[in-house]
Amino acid sequence: MDKYAILLGYFDKQQAIIQKLQNDVIHLDLSTWENGYVFALKTQQLFTALEDLFKQTAKAFENHIEDLGYYHRELLVRMNTAIPNIRPAVLSNESLILLDKLRAFRHFVRHGYGCELNEKELSILQESLRSQYQPVVNDLKVFRQYIIKLSST
Fold first, then answer.
1. How many domains does the chain have?
2. SS3 for 83?
3. Using an 8 Å Cβ cutoff, are 128 and 101 in contact?
4. pLDDT per residue as tens digits for the range 15-26
5. What is the C-alpha separation between 40 and 24, in angstroms, rounded?
6. Model confidence over 31-69: pLDDT tens digits?
7. What is the rounded distance in angstroms from the CA atom of residue 19 to the CA atom of residue 124?
8. Residue 57 in contact with residue 146, Cβ under 8 Å?
């Protein structure tokens, strides 16, 4: 089996999930307490779906992450790094900055048991997802084209 064809199939399936979650979070009305929690849940799902895509990409190309203590951050940095003779960078610097904010937010949602969500901070993150997410979409499209080339050779 061709590992790049497998990655392409996973990539397409995962992108549909990612697109739906991103659309859900940017259109959610954050004026109610309940919707703040829905936003938090869906935003952490969005990042997890992206991270799962990056894990499969790493598996297809370079296969492992060394420092498990900083796994989530290192995975993002690796996706922002071109690996000569292996693959181009998956993410631009612009995408890395936004996705690192999402990574930190997911960590807060998963581990901030005693903290309440702040509507203003959620609104700022939501606006970032509206105005700064397009580079992520573009980066994934470009990388998908790269995978298509590899899977057809």
1. 1
2. strand
3. yes
4. 999 999 999 999
5. 11
6. 999 999 999 999 999 999 999 999 999 989 976 666 656
7. 20
8. no
pLDDT tens string 68-111: 566 788 999 999 999 999 999 999 999 999 999 999 999 888 88
Q: Which two tokens stand for residue 120?
A: 């203003």
Distance CA 90, CA 141 (A): 10
Tell me the residue range of the domain where 114 lies.
3-151
Residue type, 147: I
The 3-state DSSP class for residue 87 equals strand
Helix, strand or coil, per DSSP, at residue 147: helix
- In the predicted model, is pLDDT for residue 139 greater than 80? yes
**Residue 111, domain CATH:** 1.20.120
Please give the single-letter amino acid code of residue 35: N
- Residue 110 in tokens: 């998963």
Q: pTM (2 decimals)?
A: 0.92
